[in-house]
Fold this sequence. Notes:
With 380 residues, the protein is an alpha+beta fold. 29% of the residues lie in helices and 27% in strands.
Amino acid sequence: MSELLVVGGGIMGLWAALCAARRGMAVRLVDQQRIGAGASGGLLGALMPHMPDRWNAKKQFQFDALVSLEDEIAQLEAETGLSPGYRRTGRLMPLAKPHLRDIALQHAQDADRHWRAGDRQFYWHVRDEGPEGWPGVEAKAHGLVFDTLAARVSPRKMLTVLRAALLQSPNVEINEGCGVRAIDPAHGRADLGDGSRITFGQCIIAAGVGSFPLIDALSGPMKATSGTAVKGQAALLKAEVDPALPVIFTDGVYIIAHDDGHVAIGSTSENSFADPSATDEQLDDLIRRAALLAPGLREAKVVERWAGLRPKSAGREPMVGRHPDHPNILVLTGGFKVSFGIAHRLARFAVDEIAGVPSIDMPSSFVCRDHIEALREKHL
Ligand SMILES: Cc1cc2nc3c(=O)[nH]c(=O)nc-3n(C[C@H](O)[C@H](O)[C@H](O)COP(=O)(O)OP(=O)(O)OC[C@H]3O[C@@H](n4cnc5c(N)ncnc54)[C@H](O)[C@@H]3O)c2cc1C
């Protein structure tokens, strides 16, 4: 059987490799550095739903993904005996102004209508009170929203679990430390950074921000590049906080209690930057804002400062599926800020396409063919 080449060992590539291995495909995953070297090796792991209003195919896809991830993780835990630190904690969002309460109450009705899956239902509660100090009194002066759909996972543990699951399969080979420099779809060949060459039957490009130059090179003339990098900084604090506490999210600040006595704080969103991996005063500011929101964090020690590059497609939506010009090339990237909640479903769609057995609907704005078409016509 000819091999599936997966380019990139982040959350996207690992799920793709696992889906394919479970289907009995022979898989080679190649990462230019190592698994988790990209954005997926970060600290946050918020699994956040879209707002429940103005419902559309994209929101439905993400909702289904967030609900189904729970079972996927239970399966992985059973297979590997490892935990990725997943918990459906819900999310608290302080209401900054009194009038936002009316809007939130409307959203509660929207959630009531749309956040249903079989006999399960998730809520957008509007409340006056939350857990003590989480957030502090000032932040909840006008009340808060508690959504019961949001969850969190430890990004690095998630990658460890996926790798462990992959290593159980005799069909999978993982090669780290040497990336793909160029892809020749006509001959099913990839040139690697060390000058060697490998052949493939099918290839999935899941290289995070490294995907875009590979896609551009395969796509002929386009009026813009297929995507860019948006830098983000985050921090990890040592704090004995109840790991069952919901994610706090307000005005760009996330506070996430993880299972192991750590709290993650994020994230900046930077379109221009000199050093992709440096942290600076923008992160200091985030940490300060987080401590104002959750006073229990004021004395907490910062144990890690981290920065990474999010893959953002030109169309802003994830980019998934077969390349319109090359039947043996698929794309799986552009998850931007929400990859951890949807990667398993995007990967399944891509692998379904290879297997020729479609099993899930994909919003058209996510489909690679439509991205490339838009880039050629430049109606982005
Ligand atoms: C600060 C910050 C906070 C975030 N918070 C969240 C969050 O709370 N929830 C969430 O869902 N998302 C979050 N994200 C976004 C999320 O991390 C990314 O969308 C996701 O990790 C992208 O995964 P990926 O697999 O597409 O790419 P990556 O994780 O970047 O993986 C790509 C891999 O491909 C490899 N590679 C690159 N080029 C090549 C090549 N040519 N050949 C071979 N290998 C190559 C890289 O070494 C890397 O290992 C955050 C991102 C940042 C930066």
